[in-house]
Every structure is written in C-alpha cells, then in structure tokens.
Write a structure and sequence with these properties.
This protein has 325 residues and is an alpha/beta fold. It has helices spanning 40-47, 70-75, 92-96, 98-102, 107-120, 125-128, 138-150, 168-179, 182-185, 196-202, 220-225, 230-236, 240-247, 277-286, 309-323, and strands spanning 2-11, 14-24, 29-33, 55-60, 63-64, 77-81, 156-160, 188-193, 205-210, 213-218, 268-271, 293-296, 305-307. It binds adenosine-5'-triphosphate. Adenosine-5'-triphosphate binds at residues 11, 16, 34, 36-42, 194. Adenosine-5'-triphosphate binds next to helix 1. InterPro entries: AAA+_ATPase, ABC_transporter-like_ATP-bd, ABC_transporter-like_CS, P-loop_NTPase.
Length: 325
C-alpha cells in the first residue's frame, strides 16, 4: 500500500530521517516507535508531504507522491495529531466537515456522514455537533479529531501520538475502543508513539527507529523474542517480561504445559487458545480464594486443559528457554 525507498530528510546538514526503506501493507496498523527526536513524526509527514523528501521515494497505492498535488494526496489520507488539532473557532460540525467540503460533498451527505462518524466515535451528534473545541474534554476532542480524519473514509490514516495528551484512564479506554473500531479495521494505519505499551497493543508490526534509522521492523513478537540488535534489546529491556506475556498466546504454550486434568474447582474461567498469556495470568492473580483456574478450550488437535498460574509460568519458562534468550 505504501512503499518507502531510501527516504532521507535533511534539515540543514542534520539527517532527521536517514535512508529508510519499508513497505506498509494494506490494512495493517504499523507503529513508528522510538525515543523523542528519532524521526518518527518526520517520517509520517513525508508520507502526506507536509514535509518534502530530500532524497528517495514514496509511493501510496502505486503512485509516486511527488507526482501528485499535495492537496490531492491528502484528500485520500486521514491525519490525526496529538491534542486533536481542531480549529478553535469552528464548531465540531464545521471541524469534521473540512475535508468533505474540499471534496465538494453536498450539504445533506456531509451532515449525514458527520453525524454518523461522531456517533461511531461515541459522541452524541445531537449533543456535540454545535459545541466548540474549548467546550470539550481532551478525550472528546481526540474523538472529534479521529472523526474528522475518518469521515471521508480514506484508505490510509496517519496518526501522530493520537492518545499522547490523555490521562491514563481515558487513554486506556480510548485505546480499547480504538482496537475494536470497525471504521479502522479495513484501513492502513500508520501510528507514531513513544509509548512501548501502546505500540505493542495496537501494532500489527512495529518499526523501531533511532537517530533517523530503522533499528528493527517486525511483529511485536519478533521484536520481543528476536531483537535485531543491542539497541532493540535495551529499548525493550524494562518491560520485556510483561511484553513477552502479552505477545504469547496460550495455544503456543501447549506443548510445554503439564496440566492438572482433574480440577474440581468451581471458579473456572474459560479462555480460547488465542487469549494472551498476560490476560490469563492477570485473571488468575485477581482473586485469592477460591483460586481461579483457567480452562483452555480444546481444539481439533489439542485437548481441553485446566491450568493454574504455576502451570502457566512454568510453561512460559520452558518456552523462553527453548528460544535460548
Ligand atoms: N523543521 C525542522 N527543522 C530542523 N530540524 C527539525 C525540523 N523538524 C524536525 N527536526 C529535527 O529532526 C529530528 C527528528 O524530529 P521528529 O519530529 O521527526 O522526531 P520524533 O521522533 O517525532 O520526536 P517526538 O517524539 O519528540 O515528536 C529532531 O532532532 C528534530 O529536532
């Protein structure tokens, strides 16, 4: 969907983005992750030409972006920035209608779609359409920012720290909703963050950058279990164990599990094999008595199993040992 080849951006003599190449697949969520100043935002803005390339090339849907007018290009690429970036003197309705107006939509289509997308974002159209950004909370502004980026249903959406300005609780609830948002499911999303947890929760793949270069591009599991170099290892070090539990699915532990087959407990929580090991351990550590047990659903090739927390942790240990980390 997006093809970046040898992209470089130089400010004076400083290389903010240094000869990076990557492909972003259709419908994937790719997270650009890294510390402040590593070139994430510059990379994002190169894609919609808010910043022009110094060298290299970028194609979106098979077309070289240099051969299109920036306004044309941006009509097909949604853009969400930290703090939502709403126009303060426009109402919510007017803010969301900016791109539809550029596209020449008529009034009735614009109004219907504006209300629809606002409702999808969890804001009542009746209540919020006429409000100004200053009358909204940070979380609500962020939702309007997302609505504005999605109202014309662009195939590509760029997001720059979209949840960065929110308090942890609002952020966690928006993150959860975001992952399940049907309106985003079929889109190619490139999201910038410096938050490791957010990257691992949202990214199908993560592109970890440092000093304008790509250090590793891979799935969350690849980054955590097969770090490409010392930088990646160091970057994830502090959260490593939690991330390992987060990216591992229960089914992947099957051959390392030595379960109790005859549990009589009544406090049984059934999980599918696709559930993360982190989710299972969190469920098991919430209650103390009666100690809950995880029942792992049977598949065509594996029997159902009953597991306590020690069974799971022992299996995780064995799994990690076999990878020789
Ligand atoms: N217009 C500019 N002129 C000069 N230098 C710039 C310009 N824009 C960015 N830079 C520099 O390029 C580097 C990369 O900036 P960029 O905004 O891409 O980083 P980032 O990884 O997104 O960081 P952050 O998470 O802090 O936003 C930084 O050192 C920054 O100071």
């Amino acid at each position: 969907m997006i093809r970046i080849r040898n992209a470089t951006k130089t400010f004076s003599s400083f290389k903010a983005v240094d000869n990076i190449s990557l492909d972003i697949k259709e419908r994937e969520t790719l997270v650009l992750l890294g510390t402040s100043g590593c070139g994430k935002t510059t990379t994002l803005k190169l894609i919609n030409r808010l910043i022009e390339l110094s060298a290299g090339s970028i194609e979106v849907a098979g077309k070289n972006i240099q051969q299109q007018k920036p306004e044309e290009l941006r009509r097909r690429i949604g853009y969400v920035i930290q703090g939502a970036g709403l126009f303060p003197h426009y109402t919510v309705k007017e803010n969301i209608a900016v791109v539809p107006r550029l596209l020449g939509w008529n009034k009735s289509k614009t109004e219907t779609q504006t209300s629809r997308i606002l409702e999808i974002m969890g804001l009542s159209a009746q209540k919020y359409l006429w409000k100004y950004p200053r009358e909204l909370s940070g979380g609500q502004q962020q939702r309007v920012g997302l609505a504005r980026a999605l109202v014309t249903d662009p195939p590509v959406v760029l997001m720059d720290e979209p949840f960065g300005a929110l308090d942890p609780i609002t952020r966690s609830s928006i993150l959860h909703e975001f992952r399940n948002l049907e309106a985003l499911r079929h889109k190619t999303v490139i999201l910038v963050t410096h938050d490791i947890q957010e990257a691992f929760e949202l990214g199908d793949r993560i592109c970890l950058m440092d000093k304008g270069e790509i250090q590793q591009l891979g799935t969350p599991k690849e980054l955590v279990f097969q770090p490409a170099n010392a930088f990646v290892r160091r970057f994830l070090q502090e959260r490593r164990f939690q991330l390992q539990l987060q990216v591992l699915q229960l089914a992947e532990l099957h051959s390392y599990l030595q379960p109790h087959l005859t549990f009589t407990d009544t406090n049984i929580i059934t999980l599918p094999g696709t559930a993360s090991v982190l989710e299972a351990t969190q469920l098991l550590s919430v209650a103390t008595y009666p100690r809950p047990v995880i029942a792992l659903e049977a598949t065509a090739t594996t029997p159902a199993l009953h597991l306590g927390i020690s069974d799971i942790m022992a299996a995780v240990d064995k799994y990690i040992q076999t990878l020789n980390l």
